[in-house]
Amino acid sequence: MARIMNLEELEQDALKRHIPVMQKEGILFLIAQLNEIHATTCLEIGAAIGYSAMMMVTHVEGLKVDSIEIDNERYQEALENIEKRELSSQINLYHEDALILDTDLLKNQPYDCLFIDAAKAQYQKFFEKYVPFVKEKGIIIVDNLDFHGMIFDIDHIKNRNTKQLVKKIKRFKDWIFNHEDFDVNYYAVGDGICVIKRKENK
Predict the structure, then answer these.
(1) Cα(194)–Cα(184) distance, rounded to whole angstroms?
(2) Given CA atoms 100, 178, 166, 141 in this order, what sign does their dihedral have?
(3) What are the angstrom distances between the C-alpha of 116 and each of 32, 49, 119, 143?
């Protein structure tokens, strides 16, 4: 029987195949945030091959993750990766478009953390749909907010589609930073991460 790759090897294999997995310093930051709030539940939008969900449950004691993935090939690979490492009791995978998923199916709600790392053009829609499932003192973590530094230099982006995407990311960033109900902290970690919390009632 073939040896099961450890998570570091799995990460390197994904990078070789150009599958987007969270940057190492980003995932370590995410794990630190989860440990800091003693999280027991997390909802992840964008499972890819299951790497970040597996990193979370193997580094945060007692954590359960519900993770949604739209792409069939990646979903199947994530399922296989999770089963091989016997982590199915801690990670529930949903093969669905997160924007139309029936939220009654989510097993571990409400959540200590909502982690958004999927289609960047839809960040605001994901946020608005799933923030009601985050506990009052829970956190929302959003990755890839700098988009390889392009967000700081939109005028020089040549590719039209890329430019449109980066503009959408910037719109989300501006929207959430100016939201009256949330406090946002930005961290220049990995590809830019925001940690969002509800404002305390005065």
Answers:
(1) 7
(2) negative
(3) 16, 15, 9, 7
Length of the chain: 202
Residue type, 34: L
Q: What is the pLDDT of residues 2-12, one digit of tens each?
A: 577 888 888 88
The pLDDT value given to residue 148 = 66
Angstrom distance (rounded) from CA 98 to CA 125: 10
Say whether 116 sits in a helix, a strand or coil: strand
Buried b / exposed e along 79-111 (16+ C-beta atoms within 10 A): bebbeebebeebbbbbbeebeebeeeebebbeb
Contact 116, 126 (CB under 8 A): yes
- Consecutive H or E run containing 137: strand 134-142
pLDDT tens track for 160-184: 888 888 888 889 999 999 999 999 9
Q: Residue 52: which of 19, 99, 84, 96 has the closest Cα?
A: 19
Q: Which domains does the chain have, with CATH numbers?
A: 40-198 (3.40.50.150)
Residue pair 11/49 in contact (Cβ under 8 Å)? The answer is no
> How many degrees, rounded to 5, is the angle at CA 95 between CA 82 and CA 86?
15
User: What does pTM read for this prediction?
Assistant: 0.91
